[in-house]
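FAQ: What does the model actually see?

It sees only this:
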Amino acid sequence: MDKRGKKIAGTMLYVPGVLLMVLGIIYLPITASMSLAVAAALGGAAMTAAGLYLNHSHKTKTLTARTVRYVLLSLGAVIMMFPFYWMLSSAFKTSAEMNLFPPSMAPNNWFDYGNFVVAFETAPFARYFMNSVIVVLSSVVITAFTTILGAFAFSRLKFPGKEILFSLLLSMMMVPFEILVITNYQTIVKIGLSDTLYALVLPFISSIFYTYILRNFFSSIPDGLYWSARVDGCTNWRYLWKIMVPIGRPALMTIILLNAMASWNSFMWPLLVIKRDTNRTLPFGLYSFTTEVGANNELLMAASSVVVMPMILLFFLARKQIVNGVARGGIKG
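And it is asked to produce this:
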């Protein structure tokens, strides 16, 4: 076979081989005939290898590398998204469907909202939602205020031991929150804030990580701008709120969004300090569907879908600001 014939034969093997391999990988976790999917993936891989052997031009190698890259990224995306799909599909399943083995990948009726109705009748989710909104707004506002002040102090003000103090604060990031739970709980009980919404906000009114991000962002602003404002009679307080905060809006938005998601999803701390049902937040409200003998999984999934949906929408709407803010805040200069 001449060179041109090998190239044509290699292309004819390569293209269907890639398609067959990709389809086999996609259908592997969802098909009932797993052996057929494995055979398709292996057969596609063999055809692809034979095609590359016959047609190993630069264009084919580049296409192969790009295909492998996208296949791996797609596989990673499927793995990441599958828990959310499983939660949402389980929310529409009946109790009998939830107990099937092997489990079904999709409900029989995607328009059966009975689980959502029962979930909202079982627990006062409207009250839980209001509690979550109050806690999130309070935490975001106070944390943003303290973060701005701390970042400005460590980036612009001159005082003895500033770098040492900041290094000590950064070292505290290595201490996990679980180690501080007992101390925080004892403090909340002693000041009489146990079983109140204040207990969900007070331990989280500042963050070293958020201060670190905003401090690096503030440090990237030229010093000449600060001294020019000072020469014109601008005070530190006015310079902070009129110049630095507007410039640092991307990093500040990232901090607000990350803090909002962390506060919304908090479960362990409310579980410790909240006793009354009327003070529960949404994640802690999911505890209503568990008993000593088990959980109503279909109702739990329906309620979980309602709880996580606002944060999923918030992430998709603001994902660029989160990534850009963290990237710019982590680079000095």
